Amino acid sequence: MSTQTTTPGTSTELRLEKFQVTAEEDPSPGGRFANWHYAVRVGFFEPRADAEDYPAYVRAFTADGRVLVGVHDDAPGALSVDGSVPVATYASMRNTLNAGGLEPLPAHLITSVTVRPSHRRRGLLRRMMTDDLQGAAAAGVPVAVLTASEATIYGRFGFGCATFTTSVTVDVRERFAILGTPTGRTELAEPDEVPALSAEVFARFHARTRGSVGRQYSYARRVSGQWGRERPVEDKAVRTAVHYDDAGDAVGYVAYRFDGWSKEPYTVSVIDLVAGTEESYLALWRYLGALDLIQEITWDGAAVDDPLPWALADRRCYRVNGHEDVLWVRLLDVAKALEGRGYRSSGRLVLEVSDALGLAGGTYQLTVAGGRGRVERVDSDSDVDVVLDIGALGSLYLGGVSPAALVGAGLVEPLTEGAIELLNDLFRDAQNPYCITHF
Ligand SMILES: CC(=O)SCCNC(=O)CCNC(=O)[C@H](O)C(C)(C)COP(=O)(O)OP(=O)(O)OC[C@H]1O[C@@H](n2cnc3c(N)ncnc32)[C@H](O)[C@@H]1OP(=O)(O)O
C-alpha cells in the first residue's frame, strides 16, 4: 500500500507518502524505507543505521505490520538534505490492549513521531495524527495508545496518561534476602531458546495484566541478545534466566546485562523482567539477588504495586529513583472501549464526553452488572452524572488514575451526588494497570 497526497504547507507544498512495510520492501540505502528510517533517527538524535541493518528492520516492521507516513518537502535548499528524506515521520501498527475484559481489545499503536526543526509548529504532527486517528476510528479500532517523549504533546489529541512504572535500584549485597519459601527453580537460559520462551511467557503475562500491550517483533530478539540496544546484531553480553514452576513449566524470565567493572557499585541492569505468576516474580528476584560480585540491580520497569519491597527482609534495600508515565490512551469508540473493559462493581452512570477532534464525543449511558458494561448513546439533555474530556476518560480507562484526583484538577466534573464514588468503584481495580511494552 502506498498513497501520496499533498498538504498545503507554508512556503512550499509538502507531499505526504504513506506505505505499509512488507517483505518486498527495498531495504537499500537511499530507498524510501531507509530514508524514512534515517529521518526518524534524526528526530531522536540517533546515528544513521548501518546499511547492512536495514533488511533486519524491514523484517521487523513487516512482522509488526507497520504503516509508515513520511512528509516530504520536494523543494529543499540547494545544500539541504534531499527531499526524498522525509521532514516528518509517523508510524502505526495494530496489536492488543488488556483492558481487564474477557479478552484483549484491538489497539492502534502510534510511534516514530518526528518533525524536523525546520518544519515544526506548522501543523504537520496535527495533520498526521488527525488523519491517522480518523482512519483507525473508521476501521472500528476502539482505542489508540502511545508512549510519549514529552507529556505536553498528546493531551490536545485526546490522549490521557493511564499507566505508570517505577524506576528502582535494589541493593543485593549482604542485607538482601527475600522472605518466604522459594518455589520451582531459576536457571540460565540457552540464548537460542529465549525468543520462543519470551513470547510464551509474555503471552501469559499479557493475558493476566490489565494495561498490558502486545509486543512488537524486536522484543524477543532484544531479550535474547540476538539484537543489541543500538543495532539488530548480536549483543553477547545479554543474559537471560528462566524460572520454572514446581510443575516444570517456564513461567518467567529476566534478561539482564552487566554495566561493566568501571562502574561502582557493580551493577546489573534489567532489560526485561516478565513473570507469569507472583511466585515467579519473587523467584526471579532471588536469582538476581544471588548474582555473585554484583552489588546493585537497576530496573526502570517495576510495577507501581511492586510486591518486592514487602517481600524483602530489609525493605531499605529497595530504592525508588522515580516514576514514569508509560501508556497514553485515546478512546476512539467509547461504547466499544467501555464494553470491552472489566468492572469490579455494578451501577449506572451517564457520561458527557467532549472530544475536540470530533471522533468519540457524545453522551453515553454506562450500565454495569456482573462485571460487564453495556453502553448506549443517549440524548445530550439526559441527566448527566459526569462531564469529562475524552483524554480524562482515557486516563481513567485502565483503572490506574483516581477520579477524585481528576476532579481536583478540574478535568472531571461531577454533576450528581455520589457520581465520583461510583466512577471510582466501577473503574478502579485492586491493582494498578501495568504496561511493560515500549514502542
Ligand atoms: C509517540 C511518539 O513517537 S513520541 C515522540 C514525539 N517526538 C519527539 O519528541 C521528537 C522531537 N519533537 C518533534 O519532532 C516535534 O516537535 C513534534 C513531533 C513533537 C511536534 O511536531 P509539530 O509538527 O511541530 O507539531 P504541530 O505543529 O502539528 O503542533 C500541533 C500542536 O501541538 C503543539 N506542540 C507541538 N509540539 C509540542 C511540544 N513538544 N510541547 C508542547 N506543545 C507542542 C503545537 O504548539 C500545536 O498546538 P496548537 O494546535 O494548539 O497550536
Automatic annotation (TrEMBL):
<dbReference type="InterPro" id="IPR016181">
    <property type="entry name" value="Acyl_CoA_acyltransferase"/>
</dbReference>
<feature type="domain" description="Enhanced intracellular survival protein">
    <location>
        <begin position="334"/>
        <end position="435"/>
    </location>
</feature>
<dbReference type="Pfam" id="PF13527">
    <property type="entry name" value="Acetyltransf_9"/>
</dbReference>
<comment type="subunit">
    <text>Homohexamer; trimer of dimers.</text>
</comment>
<dbReference type="Pfam" id="PF13530">
    <property type="entry name" value="SCP2_2"/>
</dbReference>
<feature type="active site" description="Proton donor">
    <location>
        <position position="154"/>
    </location>
</feature>
<feature type="binding site">
    <location>
        <begin position="113"/>
        <end position="115"/>
    </location>
    <ligand>
        <name>acetyl-CoA</name>
    </ligand>
</feature>
<dbReference type="GO" id="GO:0030649">
    <property type="term" value="P:aminoglycoside antibiotic catabolic process"/>
</dbReference>
<dbReference type="InterPro" id="IPR051554">
    <property type="entry name" value="Acetyltransferase_Eis"/>
</dbReference>
<dbReference type="InterPro" id="IPR041380">
    <property type="entry name" value="Acetyltransf_17"/>
</dbReference>
<protein>
    <submittedName>
        <fullName>GNAT family N-acetyltransferase</fullName>
    </submittedName>
</protein>
<dbReference type="InterPro" id="IPR022902">
    <property type="entry name" value="NAcTrfase_Eis"/>
</dbReference>
<feature type="binding site">
    <location>
        <begin position="121"/>
        <end position="126"/>
    </location>
    <ligand>
        <name>acetyl-CoA</name>
    </ligand>
</feature>
<keyword id="KW-0808">Transferase</keyword>
<dbReference type="Pfam" id="PF17668">
    <property type="entry name" value="Acetyltransf_17"/>
</dbReference>
<dbReference type="InterPro" id="IPR036527">
    <property type="entry name" value="SCP2_sterol-bd_dom_sf"/>
</dbReference>
<feature type="active site" description="Proton acceptor; via carboxylate">
    <location>
        <position position="439"/>
    </location>
</feature>
<dbReference type="GO" id="GO:0034069">
    <property type="term" value="F:aminoglycoside N-acetyltransferase activity"/>
</dbReference>
<feature type="binding site">
    <location>
        <begin position="149"/>
        <end position="150"/>
    </location>
    <ligand>
        <name>acetyl-CoA</name>
    </ligand>
</feature>
<comment type="similarity">
    <text>Belongs to the acetyltransferase Eis family.</text>
</comment>
<keyword id="KW-0012">Acyltransferase</keyword>
<dbReference type="InterPro" id="IPR025559">
    <property type="entry name" value="Eis_dom"/>
</dbReference>
<feature type="domain" description="Eis-like acetyltransferase">
    <location>
        <begin position="222"/>
        <end position="320"/>
    </location>
</feature>
